[in-house]
Structures are given as structure tokens and as C-alpha cells.
Sequence to fold (256 residues):
Amino acid sequence: MSRKKTFKSKAGSVSAASALPSANGARPGRPGTALPSPEAPPNGPQQPGRLSFGGGGDFYDIAFKVMLVGDSGVGKTCLLVRFKDGAFLAGTFISTVGIDFRNKVLDVDGMKVKLQIWDTAGQERFRSVTHAYYRDAHALLLLYDVTNKTSFDNIQAWLTEIQEYAQDDVVLMLLGNKVDSTQERAVKREDGEKLAKEYGLPYMETSAKTGVNVDLAFTAIAKELKQRIMKAPNEPHFLLHDYVKQEGRGPFCCQF
Ligand SMILES: Nc1nc2c(ncn2[C@@H]2O[C@H](COP(=O)(O)OP(=O)(O)OP(=O)(O)O)[C@@H](O)[C@H]2O)c(=O)[nH]1
Ligand SMILES: [Mg+2]
Fold:
């Protein structure tokens, strides 16, 4: 069987039971040392429509787990910090040890959607640790660095890993990060698009430094996940590929 099919965006639904329970607060991990349990918080029955209070002090209706994966140095931690805090971590590169997570609640079409975002270490030596977390992920953002060809070449290996460890219906998006570094670019936008098309993945170029397309990537994921379990009968079907294509900022429309 062709592997390509595995990553085609699936119109199937995520069962309500696979969303995170809304009343469950996130257990903070100690950055750099402690490894939160893959089951924390556990998946459980969802009560859609009931506004709940999370342990982290945030109100939300429904929660999902999103994982950031990709080679070390592609900008996973910076992307998360940009999304969560609107800031860029410039300066010395501090590689993530193990895994950590941050929460953010988004307003998606009038519903509070909490994303629990797991930032994994890209270094090979932590691979066995992160494997355990894949199975609970509702969505994966797979990153490469547009200034680092090796990180792009490794995408196929990451897809093999995802195929092995993640759920079949996981929402997956490919992101080419550091698009602000125009002088150092080593991977053409068309090559990213081609690879994404080959595997049926939605694709965008992002910059954690300038923030371009960062909110959009997470919002698109949140919309897709929310609609999979909460679609109103008369609501038009959300098309993730079309949405990112339509909303994404690129060299022809905007400055990086
Ligand atoms: N120019 C530019 N630099 C970036 C961007 N994102 C991250 N960086 C830089 O790239 C380096 C690595 O970023 P991280 O976010 O720590 O990389 P990571 O993927 O989390 O790496 P690991 O934790 O080892 O897996 C840092 O020096 C960042 O400042 C970006 O969008 N543009
Ligand atoms: Mg990191």
C-alpha cells in the first residue's frame, strides 16, 4: 500500500471521546528535566457546549492535543513561544530536552477551543521519549527549516515515524519555518509545496521570528479539529487545505 494515502486529509470524524476532557487542567512539566506523562491529561469523554474551567485558569469548551515535531533547530519551540506569547526567542539556541507543553485557548466560531501544545525535542537521543506521546495527539505540526536542506530531506523519515506511532486520523500539517531568512534559503517554496502535495498534506511557510502564518497554522488546526466533532448540520464543511491556501501569506502578497 502506498504510504501517501496514509497522510491524505481525512474527512472522517474524531469521536467525542478522543477529545481532551474540558474540565481537566494541564499538569505543568518542568522545562528541561521532568517529562510529563503521555497520558497527562488523559483522554476522556467530552461534554460539548459546557463551558468549563481548566486547572490552568482558562475557560474552554473543548480541548485538543497538538504536537510539534521535526529536526532539532527547525524552530518548534520558537513557533510555540510566538503563538503563545507573541514573542521571538532570539539569541542562543537552547535545545529542548525531552518534551514540554503550553496551553492556549482560541475562539473558533464562537467556541472556546483549548490547544494543549506539546513541544518535542528534535534531537535523535530523545526520539524514544517522544514516541510515547504520538498516540494521544489529535494534530501534528511537522516542521522543517527552509534554510536547512537536511531538515527538509528528513521529512520523509518523520512521516514514517508519524505513520508508525500516531493515530490514523491525526490532523497533519507541514510547515517550512524561518521564511524570514531569505538570503539563507536552501529549500524552495515550490519544493515544499511539491512534497506536501505528494503526501496530501496542507502546507505553509512560517516565521517564528516575524510571526507570519504562525497564528494561522494553529487556528487552522483548531478549526479542523473542532469541526470534526462539532459540525452543525447546516454548517459548510471546513476544508483545511483550502483554508490555509486562501489565508496563508506568501511572497506574492506580503512582505516577510
Ligand atoms: N530567522 C529565524 N530564526 C529562527 C526562527 N525560528 C527559530 N529560529 C532560531 O532557530 C534556532 C532554533 O530554534 P528552536 O525553536 O529552539 O528549535 P527547536 O526546533 O525547538 O529545536 P529542538 O528543541 O532542539 O528540537 C534558534 O536560534 C532560534 O532563534 C525563525 O522563524 N526565523
Ligand atoms: Mg525546542
Strands lie at 52-53, 59-60, 62-70, 99-108, 111-120, 139-145, 171-177, 203-205. Residues 214-230 form the longest helix (17 residues). The chain has one domain: 62-248.
